[in-house]
Specification:
The complex is a heterotetramer, with two copies of chain A (about 140 residues) and two copies of chain C (about 100 residues).
Chain A: E1 11-18, H1 24-38, H2 42-60, E2 67-74, E3 78-85, H3 106-114, E4 117-123, E5 126-134
Antiparallel strand pairs in A: 1-2, 2-3, 3-5, 4-5
Chain C: E1 3-10, E2 15-24, H1 29-42, E3 47-50, E4 54-57, H2 59-74, E5 79-82, H3 86-95, E6 102-103
Parallel strand pairs in C: 2-3, 2-4, 3-5, 5-6
Antiparallel strand pairs in C: 1-2
The chains are: A alpha+beta (about 140), C alpha/beta (about 100).
Bound molecules: adenosine-5'-diphosphate (2 copies).
Amino acid sequence: MVEAANQNKGDIIKLTIPAMAEYVSVVRLTSSAIASRIGFDIEEIEDIKVAIAEACTMIIKNGEKQNIDINFEILADILNISVQAKYFVCQERDNKVFDVYDNKSLSILIIESLMDKVECESCDGIVCLKMMKKLRVDV
Amino acid sequence: MVEAANQNKGDIIKLTIPAMAEYVSVVRLTSSAIASRIGFDIEEIEDIKVAIAEACTMIIKNGEKQNIDINFEILADILNISVQAKYFVCQERDNKVFDVYDNKSLSILIIESLMDKVECESCDGIVCLKMMKKLRVDV
Amino acid sequence: MGLEVKKEFDKNKNVWILKPMGEIDIYTSPSFRDILLEMINEKSVDVILDGEGLIYMDSTGLGVLISGLKKLREKDKNIILTNIKPNINKLFDITGLNKVFIIKE
Amino acid sequence: MGLEVKKEFDKNKNVWILKPMGEIDIYTSPSFRDILLEMINEKSVDVILDGEGLIYMDSTGLGVLISGLKKLREKDKNIILTNIKPNINKLFDITGLNKVFIIKE
Ligand SMILES: Nc1ncnc2c1ncn2[C@@H]1O[C@H](COP(=O)(O)OP(=O)(O)O)[C@@H](O)[C@H]1O
Ligand SMILES: Nc1ncnc2c1ncn2[C@@H]1O[C@H](COP(=O)(O)OP(=O)(O)O)[C@@H](O)[C@H]1O
């Protein structure tokens, strides 16, 4: 079986899409393809796909007049992803959901549950959501 | 059925990968996803995927120390793709294959057969292969 | 991909049966919302969502189900989910929505 | 994805049977080339490539088959392709390689 071995530490793949609902499916497929190439298992591939799509969804909800830049950094046993856009209102995680009908943080809740590390940064007016997923190496 | 209607003329999607053999599968999946979203049929999606992958293959054969930039421009009924890299030796189509064992233009032959228009341009030392595929609109 | 939604009213059981086929995401959820709310407006009875053909759902899909549930609860009705695929089930677990909806095997 | 190659020598018919499962592209074709050339070096007999499980092939895969064929032709042997999927068949048509290889239904 010819499969991925991540000798190539630090490879970077970039994807830019218009912030439009119809292109989130493209992001999902690209994310799956990358995660699969790196050697994540099926459930982890799904986690990565879902998390990145939720980040795009948060951005697109703020309007469709900009681009979304997604960076995938492939390290030996880590995939770092950053999703950024100018008009990006990142949800804050709300742990106390008293009223199930009145919580506005579904996306960030999902992202934080699925990824190993999540940070929201802002610089020069560009908001950037950084996520990290570790590759569990089987012995 | 919720499906694509390309009201959004001029949308651009960009993908950058390291010129490495292992990432061509990522290009194939991204290309399929875009072509499918735009409304191409299964055979056309395959054509687009194969042609873009062959362009990347030509570049990667010249060495793995650069990036490949792929641009997808989505027009009303046209998909324009450009694939570019610094060290890109674009094959020339050789119509007279006397010796079947001695033709070096398989990739460009395939690309030209599958796409509606193909041009190879060079500017500032960057070689760029431009391809176009028309969306056949059913009435 | 995309989304196709089949709906059907079961007279004997007095329930709606809703079968979304494909993906419910930010692109397709507006039409899913329209269909769900229209059903509920037509007849406020329990809604059984059969997830057999549903391969993907995101937060916007969850949002649509929540707004449907909110309307139904006013009439003491529910949304019951069956045949939900593991990847989608995971979302309900993560968000705690597994305690809000009735999820059957 | 990736590529897994099954090979088997059929004693009765005195042929190699080669079953590539998955994708032959610029990433996987070096290992496909190694396997094919090793087979041919071991025994120069006809090679039957069963394309049942081969879902994708690119120009580098064609190149490997051509170099295999070149070696086999020196001993008057051939590569015979069967069960080739339509998308891959198209490549043989486009390149004129359908006249170079023996392609069976
Ligand atoms: N953890 C939760 N439990 C129950 N309901 C939730 C939860 N999180 C969000 N909701 C509900 O889901 C709906 C959609 O949420 P969300 O997609 O986060 O925000 P928005 O309404 O801004 O799109 C909201 O109406 C909210 O009431
Ligand atoms: N149209 C063709 N018909 C038969 N053989 C071909 C054809 N095109 C290329 N070949 C053969 O396929 C092999 C690989 O070709 P190609 O991938 O284009 O070049 P390279 O050898 O530089 O990778 C070469 O050995 C060549 O002889």
